[in-house]
Automatic annotation (TrEMBL), chain A:
Gene designation per UniProt: BOP1
GO cellular component: nucleoplasm; PeBoW complex; preribosome, large subunit precursor
GO BP terms: maturation of 5.8S rRNA from tricistronic rRNA transcript (SSU-rRNA, 5.8S rRNA, LSU-rRNA); maturation of LSU-rRNA from tricistronic rRNA transcript (SSU-rRNA, 5.8S rRNA, LSU-rRNA)
Protein's UniProt name: Ribosome biogenesis protein BOP1
Signal peptide, first to last residue: none
Lineage: Eukaryota, Metazoa, Chordata, Craniata, Vertebrata
Region named Disordered: 1-54
Automatic annotation (TrEMBL), chain B:
Subunit structure: Component of the PeBoW complex, composed of BOP1, PES1 and WDR12. Within the PeBoW complex BOP1 interacts directly with PES1 and WDR12. The PeBoW complex also associates with the 66S pre-ribosome.
Occurrences of domain BRCT (ranges): 325-418
Protein name: Pescadillo homolog
Listed HAMAP family: Pescadillo
Region listing for Disordered, in residue ranges: 447-510, 540-566
Keywords linked to the UniProt accession: Coiled coil, Nucleus, Ribosome biogenesis, rRNA processing
Organism: Electrophorus electricus (Electric eel)
Length: 698, 566
């Protein structure tokens, strides 16, 4: 701590208060007690040198004198000696403890002496540390006096005379101007040309060279032009283009992007009354935005005549015969008919219903010949396809009964009875899952011949073509006992599958080959019964198969499903459907093939039966009729000249639709008066009736 | 096998597109400069076919430019000019900040500018290309020329726009190629045919704009910059093809006026302004480079074009004749415009079809004759009544002129007399297809054009009704047969019904079609259903309109009757 800072105030004092206060001078003299020589020498005070030059070594690191006894030289060139004894740590500590002025003692490196600061000096240090002026008496907030103010004074502030250079021209400028003049004279500097503000136009396309057309011009997608205005934009449109109050309200409530018209049509009586369009600038601006911001893409517009999209199919009329007319209705059942079946001779029809009855009808006359009551709602009926056997399988609940209806040829009936009664109990009675029982009493009289009691409810029965085997379906997901095959002549039951994958929906025997088709929810599996192996697995591409029919030829299978599809498989081609038809609106309930003609029919929950003429090259829907709540349909295809379709309905009716041109051969008469029938049906029915009137056979 | 594994999005469509921000960074331009560059060069975003692929698997909304376009922009000299301008602005700001006015002045003197000529040539390599794109340019120039001289943009731009639009109008007048005019609530649409190109533009009504706040005028100004350049070059070329002097000058037929003009042209300052205003009066014809002595155009021989048979040639000739007749629609008529009608628009339209037109002297420069002129045939008025009327002229409302142009014939003036309720003004741009709604006024007009006399109203009504019936029949067919099913019909057995063979046949056909539709493929079915839905909707809309019209007509009839009774 030393030197310059302390000296400054000292000097100031000298300047400001020189000779003013002798006492203060004395104090300031005592300030400079740093000096080695203690005597106060007035002359020495006046030395103009700022530096404290008691030691003349200059600004060097003092450790250079570390090893010497002296510390430098004074003004006279004499050595300044260090104090004889250096203070060590202990001295320092003792000094600190004992000396009360220790805190104000500082070490002067230049002289190697300790200096004790006076009170004034300590004060000064404090003031400087606080950022104040060193002089106590200095007033830093003295009022400022403006010498150069806006007030015009009579005397000049300064008495300085004007410079001479303000009276004579500048030589430097003269030189510069001379140079510029010379440059202008020589033509080195030209005056600035006036800017061309107006644009210059010329014939830009004077030379249209084909090379200028770049590749990008071919890629260019020109912006579509603005839409041309319609009548509604007119200032005086026809009155129908103006919006009514409701339309206007709708328009106002709509989001501006959703509006069909971006403006409200207005009518003005004269051109004079038309105001400015308030959104004009906005619309132009939006167009600008569209031009440079809107992504462009080339899109092909489909320009199709919808008529061309309709497939060109042969006319249904050319594909006849197929059933077109409703000709017969069978009355009798009091509840929903679940199943029907036609005898192999084609003369009889059997139907099973929810009212726990099975009825036998003559097909042509609609006469109910026999009614048999069974112990529950009938799920399925099936006439034995062998012509030499007169047997009908009826399933209700857990039972399947075999009934000899006793209709038709008596010889056949008695032969059938004999066939069943000729059974002899084998010696070793096997324990079977199904009980075979012979009914007695009234049931026997009614025609029931055998009762098969199953462990579970039977949904469907299906005969083998020869008439000896009968397959029953007991749907139960995951169970091993879902399908059983009975042999009637030996009264034996076998469970063909140890394990079933999925819930079996329906089964069918192949008409010509030893195949057995099992339809689960998604697949149809074809098993070879002789080799006892899986031959094929048909993927139906639908969620839940409801019904299945096999073509009598044996090559084609159709499956109806609950998700409105009809899948047609060709067994020779692939395991995937050859064709999938989606022409029903609701779930399919039944499908059927015609025996001779390439026809198949599908009945659906949407109340329609669609008859299709299916050849390999195309499928044509031939005929569609509506009925109520279909459950099961069947083609009447016994006699070759007769094409008709049976569709059992709600309220226990069976409708028969027959082909148009053979009605007279069949010779049937429509007898319906049902208000629930739809008018189109009635119309068809009545027209067929009108035609039958002309028929001589009637 | 083997080889390097292909990485995703390193080939194919992902590499053909670039997002806007990336493009901007690639060009190292600010967004505003990038926008200007895109506007000037006509670069627009493209919608990729597979957005997700281009967007590297993300489905975020993003605009994509073609990478080729951006590469193309990199070579543009204008980009350098943008940078120069940026530097200029920085220097100027600095000079102003330091209050170095001299430097600022010097800098402003050397303000960097650029020309768009090469861009125009590059964007439109042929003149026809340029003409095809002139619609927006015209609309923009006409809009900018109506802007006030203060505020939104530079006065020079506005004046230039005004000049170019006036030049364009003069050209159309000289060529007589105006085809259609439509007074809409937005403004006046004009359609002209220039060198085989149909050009439509929209002119706002002459009112002060209330400038919207949500419009970025910088974008509009950039477009205008481009459009004025384009339109200037197009005008030059068009004037050249007609042997007209460019910049255009009006012919001084009257020596007095000429003297007047010469005197005025002494004062150079007023010269350009005055010539522009004289030009914009649209009343005089323009000076030609080669003053041809009104050579009668020789009748051209007509040769059939390739693959064109006699019928088509005849059709073409007829169309040509029609057009000629239309061009001389108002030839020989003398019009006087009252002061409340839109002078510029009417003068333009009338002069385009060969009429002589004048107006009050105090209204605008360039009037050629006075109200008192006895030879005036039509006086266009748009006020409910007029005090002083001359006997030998028709007083018509302005709509008559426009309707005549659109009808391509002189319509009967009775419907357009002063104070009469005007018939509806129809859009000439609507071309009704089959099944669309046609307003009855349009039908009347079509009949007039064919040369039939306007029928009595009752007859019209009858024909309308018949039409309605037809329409409803069509609708029935569309709806099919299901509708006809009644809910409960009782048929007694044995009652014979006469068979309507025709009906049965129709039904059979409809049924056949229904079955065929049922057998359609899924894809075709979807398309078919869509088309049929659209058709049904248009039919429904047409029916709605006709029903509305019918109700309105009946209401107005009832009103009339009531008035009569009173």
């Amino acid at each position: 701590f030393k030197s310059t800072k302390e000296r400054k105030p000292k000097k100031k004092q000298n300047v400001s208060a020189d000779g003013e206060n002798q006492e203060e001078k004395v104090t300031s003299g005592s300030d400079s007690g740093l000096r080695v020589s203690s005597q106060v020498d007035e002359y020495e005070q006046d030395t103009s040198d700022e530096e404290d030059i008691r030691n003349t070594v200059g600004n060097i690191p003092m450790e250079w004198y570390k090893d010497y006894p002296h510390i430098g030289y004074d003004l006279d060139g004499k050595k300044i000696f260090k104090p004889i004894r250096n203070k060590d740590e202990l001295d320092e500590f003792l000094d600190k403890m004992e000396n009360p002025d220790y805190w104000r003692t500082i070490h002067d490196k230049m002289t190697g002496t300790d200096v004790c600061l006076s009170d004034e000096q300590v004060d000064l240090v404090h003031r400087l540390q606080q950022g104040k002026f060193g002089d106590v008496n200095f007033n830093e907030y003295e009022p400022a006096i403006d010498f150069f103010s806006n007030e015009v004074m009579i005397h000049p502030v300064t008495n300085r005379p004007a410079d001479k250079r303000s009276f004579i021209p500048s030589l430097i400028e003269k030189e510069k101007v001379g140079k510029l003049v010379h440059a202008i004279k020589m033509g080195w500097i030209k005056p600035r040309r006036p800017k061309e503000t107006a644009p210059q136009y010329y014939d830009l396309w004077a030379k249209e060279d084909p090379n200028a057309i770049l590749g990008r011009h071919k890629m260019h997608i020109p912006a579509p032009k603005m839409r041309l205005p319609g009548h509604e934009e007119s200032y005086n449109p026809p009155p129908e283009y103006l919006l009514t109050d409701e339309e206007r309200q709708v328009w106002e409530q709509q989001d501006p992007d959703e509006r069909k018209l971006s403006f409200l049509p207005q009518k003005y009586l004269s051109l004079r009354a038309v105001p400015a369009f308030s959104r004009f600038i906005q619309e132009r601006f939006e167009r600008c935005l569209d031009l440079y911001l809107c992504p462009r893409q080339r899109k092909m517009r489909v320009n199709v005549n919808p008529e061309d999209l309709i497939p060109k199919l042969p006319r249904p009329r050319d594909l006849q015969p197929f059933p077109t007319l409703q000709s017969l209705v069978y009355h009798g059942h009091s509840s929903l008919i679940r199943s029907i079946s036609i005898s192999p001779s084609g003369q009889w029809l059997v139907s099973g219903s929810d009212d726990c009855t099975v009825r036998f009808w003559e097909v042509c006359t609609t006469r109910c010949l026999k009614t048999m009551e069974v112990g529950g709602p009938v799920k399925s009926v099936a006439w034995n396809p062998a012509p030499s056997i007169s047997l009908v399988a009826v399933s209700y609940g857990e039972n399947v009964i075999l009934v000899n209806p006793g209709l038709g040829d008596r010889l056949i009936c008695s032969a059938t009875d004999q066939l069943i009664s000729s059974y002899e109990e084998p010696e070793e009675v096997k324990d079977q899952q199904v009980q075979w029982a012979v009914p007695e009493g009234k049931a026997q009289e009614q025609g029931q011949r055998l009762i098969l009691t199953h462990p579970k409810a039977v949904k469907q029965v299906s005969w083998h073509g020869r008439g000896d085997y009968l397959a029953c379906v007991m749907p139960d997901d995951g169970s091993s006992l879902q399908v059983v095959i009975h042999q009637v002549s030996r009264r034996r039951t076998q469970n063909p599958f140890h394990r079933n994958k999925g819930a079996v929906q329906c089964v069918s025997f192949h008409p010509s080959r030893p195949y057995f088709l099992v339809a689960t929810q998604r697949y149809v599996r074809v098993y070879n019964l002789i080799k006892q192996e899986l031959t094929k697995k048909l993927m139906a591409n639908c969620k839940w198969i409801s019904s299945m029919a096999v073509h009598p030829g044996g090559d084609n299978v159709i499956c109806g499903s609950y998700d409105c599809r009809l899948a047609w498989f060709d067994l020779d081609l692939s395991t995937k459907p050859y064709k999938v038809l989606r022409h029903h609106k609701k779930a399919l309930r039944g499908v059927a093939y015609h025996k001779h003609y390439p026809l198949f029919a599908s009945g659906s929950d949407d109340g329609t039966v669609i008859v299709c003429h299916g050849m390999v090259y195309n499928v044509t829907a031939c005929f569609c009729f509506s009925s109520l709540a279909l459950s099961h349909i069947s083609f009447y295809s016994v006699r070759e000249w007769c094409v008709s379709i049976f569709s059992p309905q709600l309220f226990g009716l069976i409708d028969v639709y027959i082909a148009n041109h053979i009605y007279s051969n069949l010779g049937c008469i429509v007898t319906i008066t049902l208000p629930t029938l739809s008018s189109s049906q009635v119309r068809k029915a009545s027209s067929s009736f009108a035609l039958t009137l002309h028929c001589p056979k009637l | 096998m083997g080889g390097l594994q292909k990485k995703k999005y390193e080939s194919g469509s992902a590499t053909n597109y670039i997002s806007r921000n990336k493009a901007r960074k690639k060009l190292s331009l600010s967004l505003a400069d990038f926008r200007r560059l895109c506007i000037l060069k006509g670069i627009y975003p493209h919608e990729p076919k597979h957005k997700k692929k281009v967007n590297k698997g993300s489905t975020a909304q993003r605009t994509f430019y073609l990478l080729k376009d951006i590469r193309f922009l990199m070579h543009e000299p204008i980009v350098g000019k943008f940078r120069e301008y940026k530097i200029f602005v920085r220097k100027l700001r600095k000079a102003y900040g330091k209050a170095e006015w001299g430097t600022a002045e010097k800098l402003r003197g050397n303000k960097p500018g650029y020309k768009l000529d090469h861009i125009i040539k590059e964007r439109y390599p042929t003149f026809i290309d340029a003409l095809r794109d002139v619609d927006d340019a015209l609309s923009m120039c006409f809009l900018f020329s109506t802007f006030p001289r203060t505020g939104k943009c530079h006065v020079q731009t506005i004046e230039l726009c005004r000049r170019l639009s006036v030049e364009w109008m003069n050209y159309i007048i000289t060529l007589r190629s105006l085809r259609k005019v439509f007074l809409s609530i937005k403004g006046i649409y004009y359609q002209a045919e220039v060198l085989g190109q149909i050009i439509t533009w929209l002119v706002p009504y002459q009112f002060a704009h209330d400038h919207p706040t949500d419009v970025d005028y910088r974008v509009m100004a950039t477009f205008t910059e481009l459009y004025t350049t384009l339109l200037g070059f197009i005008n030059f070329r068009l004037y050249q093809t007609l042997n007209l002097v460019y910049p255009p000058k009006v012919t001084h037929s009257q020596p007095a006026v000429m003297l007047h003009f010469d005197l005025l042209s002494e004062f150079g300052f007023y010269c350009s302004l005055l010539s522009l205003s004289k030009l914009s009066a649209l009343s005089a014809s323009l000076v030609r480079v080669v003053s041809t002595a009104e050579a009668e155009e020789a009748e051209l021989d007509h040769f059939p074009a390739e693959g064109e048979d006699g019928e088509k040639l005849a059709e073409r000739l007829k169309a040509r004749q029609d057009q000629d007749r239309q061009e001389k629609l108002f030839e020989g008529l003398k019009f006087f415009l009252n002061r409340e009608v839109p002078r510029e628009s009417l003068a333009f339209v009338l002069r385009c079809f060969g009429a002589q037109v004048s107006w009050d002297k105090s209204l605008c420069i360039g009037s050629t004759y006075d109200v008192t002129d006895e030879t005036i045939t039509h006086h266009v008025v748009d006020r409910p009544s007029l005090e002083k009327q001359y006997i030998n002229r028709y007083y018509v409302q302005p709509q008559w002129v426009y309707d005549c142009v659109n009808a391509r014939m002189l319509l009967p003036v009775e419907d357009y007399f002063v104070g009469v309720t005007l018939p509806p003004h129809l859009s000439p741009f609507v071309e009704e297809k089959e099944g669309d709604y046609v307003p009855p006024e349009k039908l009347k007009l079509l009949a007039l054009q064919k040369g039939e006399r306007p029928e009595e109203e009752e007859d019209n009504d009858d024909s309308e009704e018949e039409e309605d019936e037809d329409q409803s029949d069509d609708e029935d067919e569309l709806k099919g047969m299901e509708e006809k099913q009644a809910s409960s019909v009782k048929v007694t057995p044995g009652e014979a019904k006469p068979v309507n063979r025709q009906r049965a046949e129709q039904e059979a056909k409809a049924e056949e079609k229904r079955l065929a539709v049922m057998m359609m493929k899924k894809r075709d079915k979807y398309l078919y259903d869509k088309i049929m839905f659209g058709k049904k909707r248009s039919v429904r809309e047409a029916n709605k309109m006709s029903a509305k019209r019918k109700a309105l007509d009946e209401a107005s009839k009832a009103n009339k009757k009531k008035k009569l009774k009173k």
